[in-house]
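Structure first, sequence second, as always.
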């Protein structure tokens, strides 16, 4: 079994499909003043996969993307464009079997999206 964490596996699968100039923030950031939109991965949980052998689980994570705009009207349009590009990247990666998204506000300041994805693995800590 590879020694990558679930978060690293998701990052590796997603990175080649992201628009030019996009980076995935390592870990969960402390949101201060953002100079550019920010993307990070939050590993959120796991459950057994009933359709697979007992050792297989579905690991869930949120791809979080926040605009750097503090004006909600301007930020919402940008956030919607960002999540559309993120969805295209997640879909192109081809290794996520569940993708859904919900709009949110991070740190009471930055509008963005939480895109929930699921990957299959045999270890809740590793891919």
């Amino acid at each position: 079994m590879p020694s990558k964490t679930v978060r690293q596996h998701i990052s590796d699968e997603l990175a080649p499909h992201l628009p030019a100039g996009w980076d995935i923030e390592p870990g969960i950031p402390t949101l201060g003043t953002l100079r550019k939109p920010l993307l990070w991965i939050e590993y959120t949980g796991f459950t057994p996969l009933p359709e697979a052998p007992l050792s297989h689980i579905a690991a869930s994570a949120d791809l979080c993307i926040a605009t750097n705009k503090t004006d909600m009207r301007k930020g919402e349009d940008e956030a919607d464009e960002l999540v559309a590009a993120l969805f295209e990247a997640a879909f192109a990666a081809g290794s996520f079997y569940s993708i859904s998204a919900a709009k949110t506000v991070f740190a009471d300041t930055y509008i963005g999206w939480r895109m929930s994805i699921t990957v299959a693995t045999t270890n809740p800590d590793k891919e």
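Margin note: The first strand starts at residue 38 and ends at 48.
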